[in-house]
Amino acid sequence: MADDALLTDRQLRGWLRCRRRAWLDRHGDPAIPRWNPHRELQLVDRERRLAPWPASARGDRRSAGERLAAGPEAVRQLLLRRDHWRGRPTLLLRRPGASRLGPFGFVPVLLQPGRHGTREHRLTLAFWGRLLEPALGRSPGEGLLLDDRGGRERVRLDGSLQPQLDQALERLRRDRDLTEPPDLTSDRRKCVLCRWRSACDRVAEAEGHLSQVSGIGGKRREQLQGLGIVDRAALAATDGPWLMDRLEQQGERRPELALELIAQARCQELGHADHLDPADPLPELTEAPGVLIYDIESDPDAREDFLHGFLVLPRGPDGRLVDPAAGRYLPLLTLKEQGEARGWQRLQGRLARHQGWPVLHYGETEAIALRRLAQRQGSPGPAGLIDLHQRLRRHWRLPVDSYGLKAVAGWRGFRWSQPAAEGARCVLWWRRWRQRGDRRDLQRIFRYNHDDCLATWAVAQWLLGDDSSSPPSSG
Ligand code: SF4
C-alpha cells in the first residue's frame, strides 16, 4: 500500500490540535529534534495510569484479532489496521455483548490529560471505534474517557461523531497535500507540547505574528484580526483611542487594555525597553545586609514542591553584594516521606539564619507555596519576600514576547548551563531520581535550580542598573 494513503491516529490527533503540525509531521525537516520533555512527561504519566491493567507478554506474535478473540479483560496499545488506517488505542476494555469475537466485545479508552474531554479526545475515540469494527463485526457503540482523577465519561461513538470524523479525515487529507504549511495555530499555548515549537517560534517572530506580542492569546488575536489588525506591526501602528472604542463596543470590560497592547507591540517592533517608573525598583536592597535569591522546583501532577533553592549573596567588606559566582547555593530537598512539618522546620531555619534579608523570587509561585505551607503548619507567613517579576512589570516594558524568567533573562543574555533546560525536563529528572536514585539526576536538578537563581539575580542587577551591558532603552 502506498505510504501516501496511510492515515494514523497520531496524525489525526496532531491535526486536531494544529493543522500546521500535521503538515510538518509529513513534510517538515526530519533533522529537527523530536524530543520534547512535555511529551516525555505525558508518556511517563500514561504508563503510570495504565499500570492497573497488565501489559501483554513480550514477543506475543498473535494477530490483533487473535489477541482480542482470547477475551482478555483489557488490552494495552494494540495495533489495529483497517484498510489504509492505523491506530493504537491506549486501552481496550472487554464489555459483555455479542460480537464476531464471542459473547463479548471491546470499547476503546482514552486517558485524557486533564479533567475535561475535548473534541480531539472524542474524535480519536471515534477513530479507534472504526478501527475496531472489523474485529467486532459491529460498532463498539461507545468509548470511555478517563480523567486524571479516575473519573469516567462515556462517549457515544455513533450519531453525530461519525460525520464529524469523516469531515475531519477528509480535511486532514487535503491539508497534508498542501504545498505550503497551514498557518500557525491561533492558540499558541498548544505549542508547548509540540516538537516543532522552536521552528514555529522563528516563523512567528519573522512574520510578526500577533501571538508574539506578550499578552495576546488565541481569542484576542482573532478579535484583533476581525478588526483588520493582522500582525504586530499593524498593531503597533494602530490608533489607541480607536482600538479602545472598538473593544468597548465588543463588550471589553477593560478597553484601556488596547493602549497596553499597542505599547507592547511598539516596544517589540522597535526592540527598545520602555522605562515606565524611574523610582528605585528595589529599595529594600539598599541597606540590607545581604539578599537571598529563592526558587522552587515542583512536580505539578504530584502537587509536590520538592526543592527549595537559595542563592546567598551577603554584602562584602566593600559594601557591595558579593558577585553571584561567589555566592553560596543552598538546595533544600523536601521529601514527602520526611513529612511536611520537618520540611517547614528546615525552611524556617534557613530563613532565620538570614533574618532581615530580602528574599527575591521571580513570579508568584514561591510566595504562594510558602504562605500555604506556613498556613498549614499554623505559622505566620515568612517576611521579606519580593516578587521581582511584579517589580519589573511595574517599572519596565520590555521587547520580549513573554515576561517569564526564561524570556526576560534570555533577553539580558543569560544562558542556562544545561542545554534545553526547562521546568518539564527538571520534573523528568526528579521522577527518574525518585525511581532509580541516580545522583547525577539530582545534580542536574540542583544545577538547573541554581541557574534559575542566577538568572533571577541577573534580571535584578539589570533592574538596579548594575548591569554594564544594558540594552538600549527609550526611558
Ligand atoms: S509549534 Fe504550534 S504552530 Fe507549530 S506545529 Fe506545533 S502546535 Fe502548530
What does this entry look like structurally?
By secondary structure, the protein is α/β, with parallel strands linked by helices. It folds into three domains: 3-176, Alpha-Beta Complex (Lambda Exonuclease, Chain A); 208-270, 5' to 3' exonuclease, C-terminal subdomain (DNA polymerase, domain 1), CATH 1.10.150; 283-463, Ribonuclease H-like superfamily/Ribonuclease H (Nucleotidyltransferase, domain 5, 2-Layer Sandwich). Helix content is 42%, strand content 16%. It contains 17 helices and 15 strands. The strands form four sheets. The protein has a five-stranded mixed sheet. α5 (119-136) links the parallel β6 and β7 (142-146). The protein binds iron/sulfur cluster.
Provide the list of bound ligands, each named once.
iron/sulfur cluster
User: What can be said about the biggest beta sheet?
Assistant: 5 strands, mixed
Gross morphology: globular
Report the span from N to C terminus.
64 Å
Share of helix among residues? Answer: 40-55%
The helix/strand class is: alpha/beta
Identify the CATH architecture of the largest domain.
Answer: 2-Layer Sandwich
Which ranges are low-confidence, i.e. pLDDT below 50, for 5 or more consecutive residues? Answer: 468-475
CATH class group of the largest domain = Alpha Beta
Work out the count of structural domains: 3
Count of DSSP H/I helices? 17
Assign the CATH superfamily of the largest domain.
Answer: Ribonuclease H-like superfamily/Ribonuclease H
- What's the count of strands? 15
> On the 0-100 scale, what is the average pLDDT?
92
